[in-house]
Amino acid sequence: VPALLASSWLLRLTSTNAADLDLVIQFYDKAQFYDQIFDLLHERGSQRTPVEHMLYVKSLFFESRQEEFARLWEQLPPDQRSHPELRLLYAAHQAGWGPPETSGDGKAELLKVAVGASPEQILANRLLMAVSLYRNDLALFSECFARVQEAHADSGVENANYWRLLAMNGQKEEAVRLAKDYVFPPKSSTELLRLATVHILLDLKEEALKLVRRYVTTFGFSEEL
């Protein structure tokens, strides 16, 4: 949270100096603040550097802007489309949102990386979780979530999504137990909103209210909050 606030202050101070912007969006990428990347880069259009444009395309996927993601991915030069992370993002799009004939190949490509030892292993599991959530596939989500948890890389959003899938698949009691046992503070307004929303879905409205009251001033810049 301090880093998020400091990065916003840095950009205001320097009026989006190009070097500082590049540094900030790479930090946002590591922290999974894709809403922040989208907000920063959406209006820059043709002014985006190659790195900025790649991260902007990545943010489109995680912000559920799948049609725009697919359109811009097709416009990327071959060297960027062959980037390991962007290849996985496209495989995930095909697995979840593409035509039926591409779904199996996209899923197979992701699974191969998700169970391996490559630098993109965590990303592959995250992308499979996104596909699983969209497809309401609790079994696949659980497998990928376990690998991300084992690496101590799970986020509040991913935990909340897991509880939601459990509840949607007849395991609401287990979802409530996990939600009540979760003690990690949200790292962003998006994470806080997702945690609170799923608490409400689980009929934990008082807990949701307490959560928002506790952290709303931390993320006071969020219009949604």
Q: Can you characterise this structure?
A:
This protein is mostly helical. The protein has helices spanning about 1-15, 20-30, 35-40, 50-60, 65-75, 80, 85-95, 100-115, 120-135, 140-150, 155-170, 170-180, 190-200, 205-215. The protein has 14 helices and no strands.
Which structural class should the secondary elements be placed in? mainly alpha
Global Rg: 18 Å
- Span between termini: 16 Å
Q: Tell me what portion of residues adopts beta-strand conformation.
A: under 5%
Write the H/E string, N to C.
HHHHHHHHHHHHHH
SS elements, strand count? 0
Number of helices: 14
Query: Which spans of ≥5 residues are poorly predicted at pLDDT below 50?
Result: none
Mean of all residue-level pLDDT scores: 89
Helix content: over 70%
The shape is globular
Layout of secondary structure:
Layout lengths: L1 H13 L3 H14 L2 H8 L8 H13 L3 H10 L2 H4 L2 H13 L3 H15 L6 H15 L2 H13 L5 H13 L3 H10 L7 H13 L3 H11 L10
Summarize, please.
The protein is mainly alpha-helical and 225 residues long.
Name some characteristics of this structure.
globular, single chain, mainly alpha
